[in-house]
Structures are given as C-alpha cells and as structure tokens.
C-alpha cells in the first residue's frame, strides 16, 4: 500500500474533543475549460470539463472537486467532479456535466482495397488495406465559444493518416484533437486510420467474385492476373464438359422413361395389332440410340474427369 503524507507549513493546535479543517494546498493552479467528447459516455454532446495541472511541489490527493464559475452575474455553482490523485507536474481531465449546448454528429465509414496477391501450395494469399473514416460534425452554442477535445480510440496495428499525428495529443489508448469554435460555428473533423488485412483462400474453393476482384485490381501484377485467367479458362472447359456429360445423362433418362412407357403399352396390345409392331420398331431404334448414348456417356465422364485433373494439376504447381 502506498502512503501519502502532507507537511503543514505551520503548527496546528487542536483541543481535546475538537476537530479542524486544514487546507493542504492554498494556491492557484492552472486550469483550462473545455468540452470533452467521449462517444461511449454521450453520443450527441460533449462533457463540460476542465484540464487541471498540478504545478505545485506536492501531489494532490484523490477526492471530489466542487466547481464554481465567476461570471458577470457573480459566482455560481456549476458542478462536482471526482478526481484521482494528481502527482506534482501532471495533468488531469475532469468532467462535471453534459454540455447540452454543444452538438456533435458522428459517422463511420470503412473501405477495403486489394493491394497484393500471391499463390503457393494451393492457397491464394490476399493482402488488403482497410481504411476507416470517422467524421465528426461539431456545432458551438449560440452565444458561447467552445474549445472542444475530441477523443478517438486507438486500435492496435492501425496507423493514423488524418489528422497528422503531430497535430493531436496521444495517450496509450487515445488520440485527442483540439477544435476551437466561435459562437454558432460548425466544423468537420475527420479521423482516418488504416491497417493491413490478410486472407488465405483455397484456390480450388475460390468463387468467381473472389477471382474477379483480383483480376480487376489495378494493384495486382500481370503475372498473377494471367495465372488466374488460365485457371478461369480451365474452369470454363470443365463446365462445358460437365454440361455435355449431363446432357447425355438427361437423354438416357428420357429414353429409359419412354421405353418403360412403351413396354407397358406393348403388354396390353395384341401382337397382330399394327400399333404393336410400331412400338417394337421404336424400341429397337431406341436400343440402338441407347447403346450409342452409353458410349457417349462414358466418353463424356472421362473428359470431365480429365478436366478436373487438369485443374488440380495446375493448382498444385501454381506458385506466383
């Protein structure tokens, strides 16, 4: 446990059974009045706050501050605030109320741009730059100025692009931008950050949209685009072979259904009937066609399998 002791400049005498209130610090300390925007506390309004600096030689203990304002109408109470201990030479932001006279609108947008693509061991590796833009539109009160302090949370591995880092305050977890407003004035402030994003996609499972994104990106080199274009061509060949194979299968199914219908009818007709002979002739023709289709089906299946194999072999050796 840390102990804090305070040395009084003059002796104090307290009688038996008595108590005394003794000031630990009797001096002016510099403060700056401002409006502190913390979106997790209030989304539409900042907090009425002060920045307190302990420029004394001693630390200030934690406790409750009672704040008063000296105006043309006299001294008036404005609020209470709890403050943690303030070591000598350090500053604290102390908030005591919601500043409903100052309005803030906050909007967030995010974009993603593909910047790099490589392929190895059957995996397509994509690198994107994700950019987030947080736009604050701030409006001052009608007859009062404001010094506004906007807080934007830092995200690990994200780089601040706007505003410039040298123009904002920084803590371990926050960026803080100062905005000075005249009465009725509105300003727009943007925080723009970006970070890389990495994704691995099995090439065999990459869909058309993913392939098109890489091939249409201006940031990707021709080597990658040409390699993927060849893969697209091989997939088109496979699709054509699969379509042809399915068409043969569909015709075989149609013949089987028709033969089943004809055989049912033949069983019900006298052999001397002219219709019986027509059915028998049609069955004979269909059998010939069926034999040809069986051969075509085997050939189509083999071609489909070969197209599959060509894609698998291409993906296996693909390194870019």
Question: What topology emerges from the helices and strands here?
Answer:
Elements: E1 31-37, E2 47-53, E3 63-71, E4 74-83, E5 91-98, E6 103-120, E7 123-139, E8 146-153, E9 159-162, E10 169-170, E11 174-181, E12 186-202, H1 208-216, H2 222-266, H3 274-317
Parallel strand pairs: 1-8
Antiparallel strand pairs: 1-2, 2-5, 3-4, 6-7, 7-12, 8-11, 9-12, 10-11
The description of the largest β-sheet is: 6 strands, mixed
Q: What is the first-to-last residue Cα distance?
A: 60 Å
Number of domains: 3
Instruction: Specify the structural class.
Output: alpha+beta
Number of H/I helices: 3
Secondary structure: number of strands: 12
**SSE order:** EEEEEEEEEEEEHHH
Helix content: 25-40%
On the 0-100 scale, what is the average pLDDT? Answer: 89
Unreliable stretches (pLDDT < 50, length at least 5) are none
Q: How large is the radius of gyration?
A: 40 Å
Subunit organisation of the chains: single chain
> What is the strand arrangement across the widest sheet?
5-2-1-8-11-10
Rough outline: elongated
Beta strand %: 35-45%
Question: Could you give a quick summary of the protein structure above?
Answer:
This protein is of the alpha+beta class and 320 residues long. 31% of the residues lie in helices and 36% in strands.
């Amino acid at each position: 446990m840390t102990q804090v002791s305070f040395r009084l400049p003059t002796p104090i005498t307290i009688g038996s059974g008595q108590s005394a209130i003794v000031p630990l610090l009797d001096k002016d300390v510099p403060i700056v009045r401002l409006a502190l925007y913390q979106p997790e506390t209030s989304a539409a309004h900042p907090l009425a706050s002060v920045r307190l600096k302990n420029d004394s030689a001693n630390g200030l203990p934690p406790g409750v501050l009672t704040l008063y304002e000296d105006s043309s109408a006299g001294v008036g109470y404005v609020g209470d605030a709890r403050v943690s201990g303030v070591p000598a030479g350090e500053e604290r932001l102390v908030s005591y109320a919601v500043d409903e006279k100052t309005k803030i609108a906050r909007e967030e947008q995010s974009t993603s741009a593909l910047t790099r693509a490589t392929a190895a061991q059957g995996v397509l590796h994509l690198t994107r730059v994700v950019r987030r833009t947080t736009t604050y539109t701030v409006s001052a009160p009608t007859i009062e100025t404001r010094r506004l302090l906007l807080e934007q949370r830092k995200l690990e591995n994200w780089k601040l692009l706007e505003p410039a880092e040298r123009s904002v305050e920084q803590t371990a977890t926050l960026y803080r931008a100062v905005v000075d407003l005249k009465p009725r004035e509105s300003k727009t402030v943007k925080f723009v950050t970006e970070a890389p994003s990495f994704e691995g996609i099995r090439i065999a499972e990459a869909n058309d949209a993913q392939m098109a994104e890489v091939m249409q990106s201006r940031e990707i080199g021709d080597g990658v685009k040409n390699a993927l274009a060849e893969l697209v061509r091989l997939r088109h060949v496979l699709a054509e072979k699969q379509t042809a194979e399915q068409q043969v299968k569909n015709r075989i199914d149609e013949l089987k259904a028709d033969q089943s219908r004809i055989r049912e009818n033949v069983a019900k007709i006298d052999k001397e009937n002219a219709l019986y002979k027509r059915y028998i002739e049609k069955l004979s023709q269909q059998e010939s066609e069926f034999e040809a289709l069986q051969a075509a089906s085997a050939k189509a299946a083999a071609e489909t399998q070969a197209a599959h194999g060509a894609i698998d072999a291409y993906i296996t050796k693909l390194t870019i």
